[in-house]
Design brief:
By secondary structure, this protein is of the alpha+beta class. It is built from three helices and seven strands.
Length: 163
Amino acid sequence: MDEAQAALPARSDIRLTRRDQLHVTLCFLGERDGEATERATRVLSEVPCTMGGVVSLGGFLCLPSAARARVVALAIQDDEGILAALFERVASGLESEVLFQREARPFRPHLTIARLRRSGKLGLSADMPGAGFEIRSVCLYESVMSREGARYEVLQAVEFDNQ
């Protein structure tokens, strides 16, 4: 991630993601009350500890598009379907609890490395050396917003047995 962030253009409107903010979002729930949080915690507690593994970080991905980038991410190559299976398990459980509704677009795993204050074109090369990335856990986070950016507090975690 450090190499990818260092390759970004020097612009005053780019805010780099700190290491403590790194995560791959499976399902975004938005603001929820305590009862909904308890139900989401139950869903996560039912995820088997065998669902982890290794995926590969790929090239730059500008979202929502290269011309109107607001987020700079690294694509994730999920050749063995590790994140796809984890997404399916968590999304189905949250849907059954009426806490989540899938978007029309397909799940696209990525690791956000920077955000832009103004959307625009960055002209990044898609070439980045691939690197293994171990999926060690699935967590339910609460985002606490501040002027320094989001701070993520873990409400529930399932650690994976990646052996």
